[in-house]
């Protein structure tokens, strides 16, 4: 990738001063904005292109401090650093070695990120996916390399949503950075109008006509994540509770990893309880008045799409920024719930919440009971309170993206810092 980028950027810099792109005049590049997850592919050839490099973080500020480790949080070497050392050593069989290291070394030590409640180290990955330890062994040193070599980073988050995390990020790492908070990259209105003839729209309309507002749970894990086959029985146990509580549900099976018993799905479809589309117009679904809560893995895009539409959430997080997003939205802002009894791997031990240890039993029945309790709360005063909270938080985020809002001001400051805006 680095070789390809070097060839491309040098070619771009050799183009005429003004190029035409879709009929619009475009100058040659004057700055490189690179996603921190790319790991610095533009840095290796900086002597060739000579352009300043700026970091881009498409998530909340708190999530970067959980992945890259705030320098003041813990003097001990934590799990991602151990995986990074393993990755730097190279050698054969990194996949198995990284997995073995993670399972052996991840611990219950408390992680304290500014602006977040404390949590156990193993809660960084609430679902154990075998691919993740070798991925982190590869990515962590690249992420650190980026943070060591950029002095400006754009964050796709709203300052008012995480003021403590956002305020501390500038001095969080060994090299100081200047952060710019431009707001989440979210469509405030659905880019695609709902198709009145689609089975999903008809399902929602029928539920609204028969049962009224807030009568459907929308469930989706995105296009990348899905509970592993060994969690299939927990997944079905959780979803079985939805019609028992008087709701219907839409379960989007967008991920190529989606595996769930067909006879189980057919039974719910025939009973009129559910529909299982392979693709959904997610923003249009979230805007439908029949939607009650959104059951999600908690990726930043999905979370902010629900947030700006005032839809509270039920989180089933996996890795990366997802556990952090759950903490921020469900725990700090009380705009949803997190399923704890569905956890796997080392995280299927105990969770640290509000100074108390919660045992993760890990059985289907425990997951079923937890979902039953959550659904009961969504129908009562707690659910009403969460809906008020998320509508108010939604307004904060939307206002930040409006002219003169904090995100708009942050974008202008970023443009001025690059010399693109006077």
UniProtKB/TrEMBL annotation:
Domain of life: Eukaryota
Record's keyword annotation contains Transferase: yes
Sections of the chain in a coiled coil: none
Pfam family of the protein (one): UDPGT
Record-linked SUPFAM superfamilies: UDP-Glycosyltransferase/glycogen phosphorylase
Keywords: Transferase
Gene Ontology molecular functions: UDP-glucosyltransferase activity
Record's keyword annotation contains Transferase: yes
Annotated TM spans: none
Family membership noted in the UniProt record: Belongs to the UDP-glycosyltransferase family.
PANTHER family: GLYCOSYLTRANSFERASE
Protein name according to UniProt: UDP-glycosyltransferase 73C3 [Arabidopsis thaliana]
Organism in which the protein naturally occurs: Rhizoctonia solani
Phylogenetic classification of the source organism: Eukaryota, Fungi, Dikarya, Basidiomycota, Agaricomycotina
């Amino acid at each position: 990738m680095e070789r390809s980028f070097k060839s491309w950027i040098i070619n771009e810099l050799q183009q005429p001063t003004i190029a035409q792109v879709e009929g619009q005049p475009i100058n040659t590049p004057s700055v490189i904005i690179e996603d921190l997850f790319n790991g610095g592919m533009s840095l290796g050839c900086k002597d060739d292109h000579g352009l300043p490099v700026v970091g881009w973080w498409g998530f909340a500020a708190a999530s970067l401090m959980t992945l890259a480790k705030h320098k003041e949080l813990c003097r001990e070497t934590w799990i991602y650093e151990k995986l990074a050392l393993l990755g730097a050593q190279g050698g054969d069989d990194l996949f198995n070695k990284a997995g073995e290291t993670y399972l052996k070394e991840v611990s219950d030590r408390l992680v304290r990120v500014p602006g977040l409640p404390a949590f156990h180290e193993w809660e960084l990955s609430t679902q154990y996916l075998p691919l993740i330890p070798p991925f982190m062994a590869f990515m962590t040193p690249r992420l650190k390399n980026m943070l060591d070599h950029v002095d400006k980073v754009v964050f796709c988050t709203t300052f008012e949503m995480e003021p403590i995390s956002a305020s501390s990020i500038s001095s969080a790492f060994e090299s100081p950075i200047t952060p710019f908070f431009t707001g989440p990259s979210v469509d405030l209105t659905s880019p695609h109008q709902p198709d009145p003839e689609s089975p999903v729209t008809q399902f929602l309309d029928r539920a609204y006509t028969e049962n009224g507002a807030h009568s459907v749970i929308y469930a989706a894990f995105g296009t990348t994540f899905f509970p592993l086959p060994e969690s299939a029985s927990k997944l079905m146990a959780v979803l079985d509770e939805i019609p028992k509580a008087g709701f219907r549900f839409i379960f989007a099976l967008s991920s190529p990893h989606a595996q769930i018993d067909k006879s189980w799905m057919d039974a719910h479809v025939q009973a009129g309880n559910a529909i299982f589309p392979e693709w959904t117009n997610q923003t249009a679904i979230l805007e439908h008045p029949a939607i009650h809560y959104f059951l999600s893995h908690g990726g930043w895009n999905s979370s902010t799409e629900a947030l700006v539409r005032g839809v509270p959430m039920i989180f089933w997080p996996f890795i990366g920024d997802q556990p952090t997003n759950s903490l921020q939205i469900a725990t700090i802002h009380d705009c949803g719930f997190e399923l704890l009894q569905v956890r796997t791997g080392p995280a299927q031990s105990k969770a640290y919440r509000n100074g108390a240890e919660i045992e993760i039993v890990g059985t289907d029945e425990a997951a079923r009971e937890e979902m039953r309790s959550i659904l009961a709360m969504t129908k009562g005063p707690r659910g009403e309170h969460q809906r008020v909270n998320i509508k108010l938080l939604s307004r904060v985020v939307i206002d930040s993206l409006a002219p003169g809002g904090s995100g708009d001001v942050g974008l202008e400051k970023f443009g001025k810092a690059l010399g693109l805006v006077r």
